[in-house]
Specification:
By secondary structure, the chain is α+β, with helices and mostly antiparallel strands. It has helices at about 35-45, 55-65, 105-115, 120-130, 135-140, 155-165, and strands at about 1-10, 20-25, 30-35, 70-80, 85-95, 95-100, 120, 165. Helix 1 (about 35-45) runs parallel beside helix 3 and helix 2 (about 55-65) crosses helix 3 (about 105-115). It is globular. It starts with a strand and ends in a 7-residue tail after the last strand. InterPro entries: BFN_sf, Bi_nuclease_dom. Pfam families: BFN_dom (PF02577). This is BFN domain-containing protein. GO terms for molecular function: nuclease activity.
Length: about 170
C-alpha cells in the first residue's frame, strides 16, 4: 500500500464535475478520483480549516464513531472495478479490527477529519495512477508500445488539471 495525501479538490467549470487529487507522500504518483458535489464540498471545507455551524454528515459520522469508543485508524482505496473505486474505513473498536465498505470520497472526507492516513493499494495505482516522467526519463529511448499506446509524458494530464479550478470557495458552482 502507498500512503497518499489530498493534494487538492478541483472543479471543471465547463462540466461542473469535481475531482479529488491524491498524491503519494514519498514519490511523484497521483490518483484522480471523480467525486460528487457534496463530497467535494465536505473535503474542501475541511482542507481549508473552515467549519459549519452544525455538523456536516462526515463530522457526524466521525463523532458517532468516537462516541462509541472506536478510532479511525486509516482509510484504504482498495480496488477499482469497472471504473469504480472502492474504499474501506479501518477502525479500532476496543482492540477489535473493523473494516467498513465506503465510497472513496466519503472515506477521504472522514480521514481528513480524523487526521487518519489514506492508503491506496498498489494494484489500484498500477491501473489508475499517474506518474510524471522526469526529463531524464523523457530523453531515454522508449520501449516498444504495448497493446494500447501510453502517452509519452503527462502534458495532457497537466493541461487538463491546470484547466480545473481549485475549490477555494465552498459554494462555488
Amino acid at each position: 500500500m502507498v500512503e497518499m495525501t489530498v493534494e487538492s479538490v478541483r472543479i471543471n467549470l465547463a462540466t461542473q464535475q469535481r475531482v479529488v487529487i491524491l498524491k503519494a507522500l514519498r514519490q511523484e504518483r497521483y490518483l484522480f478520483i471523480w467525486i460528487a458535489h457534496a463530497e467535494a464540498y465536505a473535503i474542501a471545507i475541511e482542507l481549508q480549516g473552515a467549519s459549519s455551524p452544525r455538523p456536516l454528515t462526515h463530522d457526524l459520522l466521525k463523532n458517532v464513531i468516537t462516541e462509541l469508543g472506536a478510532k479511525i485508524m486509516s482509510v484504504v482505496i482498495s480496488d477499482l472495478i469497472d471504473d469504480i473505486f472502492y474504499a474501506r474505513i479501518i477502525l479500532d473498536a476496543d482492540g477489535r479490527h473493523v473494516e467498513i465498505d465506503a465510497r472513496p470520497s466519503d472515506a477521504i472526507a472522514l480521514a481528513i477529519r480524523a487526521k487518519a492516513p489514506i492508503y491506496v493499494e498498489e494494484s489500484v495505482l498500477e491501473r489508475a495512477g499517474v506518474t510524471p516522467e522526469t526529463s531524464e526519463e523523457q530523453s531515454l529511448p522508449k520501449t516498444p508500445p504495448k497493446k494500447e499506446p501510453e502517452p509519452d509524458n503527462l502534458e495532457a494530464y497537466r493541461d487538463f488539471i491546470n484547466s480545473l479550478d481549485v475549490l477555494d470557495e465552498f459554494g462555488k458552482d
